Amino acid sequence: MNIAEVIITINQMQVDGVIERYAIGGAVRATFHLEPVSTLDVDIFVIFRREPDSLLVSLQSIFNYLAAKGCQMEGEYAMISGWPVQFLPSTGPLVEEALAEAITVQVGETPARVFTAEHLAAIALQVGRAKDKARLLQFIEAGVLNSDRFQTIVSRHHLGEAWQRFARQFLTDTL
Amino acid sequence: MTFDLLRILASKRAFRQALATRNIVEKLAMLDELRARTLTLRAAREAAHGSSLLREDPETYRLDTKSNPS
After folding, report:
1. B33 within domain boundaries
2. Chain A contact for B61 (CB, 8 A cutoff)
3. N or C: which end of chain B has fewer CB within 10 A?
4. ipTM over 0.95 threshold
5. Looking at the domain assignment, is residue B6 inside a domain?
């Protein structure tokens, strides 16, 4: 089990043209800023290379590539170096922007593309499950976010109401 | 050892911060370990309780159609 090897494999997929661009999201991305917390999978957001004769985005080319390298598929996950990896296509303007503005961070000798902390926080706000709210709160408490940049993203993606609700619920003592 | 709650909370916060500032390679290795541990615990729990546990729904990033109209 080795996340570092997952990142190497994803980079190679980009070099080999299987995916156009990627960024790590979810709990693994959060770990770059916070203390490690247990997670069961790795979320990789991707922009696919579209097949010339198809309007549909398909994961098939990714699965074929990984299967040829000996990776097993389990449901919607590809097992890479012992980790279930979920490839998530961009599903809206916020994720598209997050992918476009993703940054490169070194993991030892390996470069890794990751969402900015502000985009990850905005996606957490948008998704809005309990664990997303907890992560957003952790980011705020850890002082990870650039407030201006975060507020700009929140406003641009019409998340103002969700942010106000979150702030009322969790930040009333500190506002 | 102390029973002073404020000191306990401060100590926990300091520990979390110390972990957060570790090298990313080290932190990712911790994720590997944590996942291995979680899988072991889950298997033991399921063996003991069957499928009666309450779980959160699987991850989806496509929920909010109001703020994400595409």
Report:
1. yes
2. yes
3. N
4. no
5. no
Question: Which residues of A are less than 8 Å from B24 in CB distance?
Answer: 31-32, 105, 107
Query: Measured on CA atoms in the order B58, B59, B61, B65, is the torsion positive or negative?
Result: positive
Q: Is the pTM of this model over 0.90?
A: no
Containing structural domain, residue B31:
23-47
Averaged over successive runs of 10 residues, the pLDDT of chain B (70 residues) comes to 88 93 96 93 81 61 50
Number of domains, chain B: 1
- DSSP designation for A145: S
Choose among A58, A132, A173: nearest CA to B60.
A132
Backbone angles phi, psi at A77, to 5 degrees: -105, 145
Whether B64 is in a domain gets the answer no
For residue B17, the chain A residues in CB contact (below 8 A) are: 35, 142
Q: Identify the residue whose tokens are 């408490």.
A: A141
Residue in the structure block whose two tokens are 């389990």: A74
B60 domain-assigned: no
Sorted by sequence, the CB contacts under 8 Å of residue A29 that are 6+ apart come out as: A23, A43, A114, A115, A120
Residues of A in contact with B35 (CB under 8 A): 1, 38-40, 83
The better pLDDT of the pair A15, B57 is held by: A15
Find, in chain B, the residue whose alpha carbon is nearest to that of A88.
B61
Of A16-25, A41-50, B32-41, the range with the lowest mean pLDDT is A41-50
